[in-house]
């Protein structure tokens, strides 16, 4: 612990928790166990208030920015092992229920003063605060007069200890819509066109989902014409559904473009398909392999890919290390970049997972410090974590052929190395 006061508080807290554990131990009656639940929830809410207050003070002092982080949520995630949504929930609470500092240094009340009171009293949890902030930050709420907006906050805060967060969201949304008597200002302009495509990799299993919407008729027609041309039944006995034929047609067209089209570089390398094959799988006639985006590929698909000259096979050792194809240049050669991609499959910072096309290759020992452009001196990082490595006390190093990241002491006093999991290196 950093101070005597924190050490003393920690000692007392441990004693209190041990007492609760004993109260809930063997021989505890029904009423005692129920009391343990309510007491534990009350204590957890008080601890949340301590955390939120500390986050607000650290934000106000600029501590996270000074240590290389653009966002408090990113720092909290790395320091405490939280998922980003958990960290953002506390950051939102800090912004909404803690007092602020004005440009002139004066102390200002919280943005949600009444919610701050019920949160401090333990009558509202973090999720309740998040819901109130979401409801009062909606477009309908922003159209309310200031006094009406403040009255809505009073009503929402009063319901926090009566409703669950989900119920509060539904009730609060209806309340704001009822108070917004004028509604959305009429707009005679045509609705804006939406053209978007989402590529979502599945977590923990192969493949992914493609979702799109194209209001631009010309753009949609171009896509539909190509897919339709390739999605026709192969024979009269082709029993594939239209959806299956269209999915395979889209993949076939994209594969053709990768092989023959004039495709721009992505993240420093020309788009292509990397097929990562473990040595034991290769010796067993290629029963499995891993793609950059799609995850594990089935044997049938692997055998088909292996016939394609545009596919780059990369053989990995037992720990997932590819062969070093080092070359003494500052610019990362295409072959060496393939090896870095093969090793990590994208950003190698723990917990990130951004694909290779979003990532860059980082010299661990800088080129200006005579660091070689070789696999043992390179790590793949997305732009966010590349910047973090250059502007914070994080350290990356290679151990046993694989990168590991050492956090600053303020994140982990023991500075224990962290590494991203490597599914293709698991036996």
TrEMBL record:
Belongs to the Rv1128c/1148c/1588c/1702c/1945/3466 family. Transmembrane segments: none annotated. This is DUF222 domain-containing protein. InterPro entries: DUF222, HNH, HNH_nuc. CDD domains: HNHc (cd00085). Residues 335-387 form the HNH nuclease domain. It comes from Pseudonocardia aurantiaca.
């Amino acid at each position: 612990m950093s101070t005597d006061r924190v050490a003393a508080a920690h000692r007392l807290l441990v004693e209190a928790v041990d007492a609760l554990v004993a109260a809930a131990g063997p021989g505890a009656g029904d009423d005692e166990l129920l009391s343990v639940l309510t007491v534990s929830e009350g204590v957890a809410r008080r601890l949340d208030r301590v955390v939120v207050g500390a986050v607000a003070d650290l934000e106000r002092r600029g501590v996270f920015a000074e240590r290389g982080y653009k966002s408090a949520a990113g720092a909290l995630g790395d320091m405490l092992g939280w998922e980003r949504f958990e960290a953002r929930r506390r950051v939102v609470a800090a912004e909404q229920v803690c007092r602020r500092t004005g440009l002139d240094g004066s102390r200002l009340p919280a943005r949600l003063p009444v919610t701050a009171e019920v949160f401090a009293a333990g009558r509202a949890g973090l999720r309740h605060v998040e819901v109130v902030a979401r409801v009062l930050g909606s477009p309908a709420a922003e159209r309310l007069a200031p006094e009406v907006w403040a009255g809505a906050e009073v009503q929402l805060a009063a319901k926090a200890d009566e409703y669950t967060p989900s119920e509060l969201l539904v009730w609060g949304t209806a309340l704001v819509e009822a108070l917004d008597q004028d509604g959305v200002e009429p707009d005679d302009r045509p609705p804006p066109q939406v053209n978007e495509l989402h590529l979502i990799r599945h977590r923990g299993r192969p493949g992914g989902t493609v979702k799109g919407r194209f209001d631009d008729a010309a753009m949609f027609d171009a896509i539909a014409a190509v897919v339709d041309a390739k999605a026709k039944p192969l024979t009269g006995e082709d029993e594939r559904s239209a959806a299956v034929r269209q999915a395979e047609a889209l993949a076939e067209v994209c594969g053709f473009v990768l092989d023959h089209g004039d495709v721009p570089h992505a993240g420093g390398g020309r788009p292509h398909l990397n097929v990562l094959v473990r040595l034991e799988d290769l010796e067993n006639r290629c029963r499995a392999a891993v793609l950059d985006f799609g995850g594990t590929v089935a044997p049938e698909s692997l055998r088909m890919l292996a016939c394609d000259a545009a596919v780059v096979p990369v053989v990995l050792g037992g720990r997932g290390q590819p062969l070093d194809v080092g070359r003494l240049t500052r610019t990362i050669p295409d072959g060496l970049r393939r090896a870095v991609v093969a090793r990590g499959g994208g950003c190698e910072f723990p917990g990130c997972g951004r694909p290779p096309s979003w990532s860059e290759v980082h010299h661990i020992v800088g080129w200006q410090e005579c660091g070689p452009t070789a696999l043992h001196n390179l790590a793949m990082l997305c732009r966010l974590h590349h910047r973090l490595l250059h502007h914070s006390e994080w350290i990356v190093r290679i151990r046993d052929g694989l990168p590991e990241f050492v956090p600053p002491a303020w994140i982990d006093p023991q500075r224990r190395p962290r590494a991203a999991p490597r599914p293709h290196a698991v036996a």
